[in-house]
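User: Predict the complex with zinc ion.
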Amino acid sequence: MLNCREIANHSSDYLEGRLPRSRRLAIWLHLMICSHCRRYLNNLKTLTASLAKRTPPAEDEAEIDKIMNRIKRETDKGTSE
Ligand SMILES: [Zn+2]
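Assistant: Here is the predicted structure with zinc ion placed in the model:
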């Protein structure tokens, strides 16, 4: 039987489905009996999802580039005058 520390060590692999079936089953069994690890994994899942959402889409990156270029032009103008 896995202990809580081992669950924590494997948690991100477990959430991303990178573990072999036997290990996934062992973690699943532990989660059935351990509310602490259930809560830990739920928090981790929520955190991962919110971080993934925060990555800016391509349009935003283009917009940021435009703004950076404008700032650079303004700065160049400032130094040459
Ligand atoms: Zn546990």
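The pocket of zinc ion is lined by residues 4, 7, 30, 34, 36-37 (CB under 6 Å).
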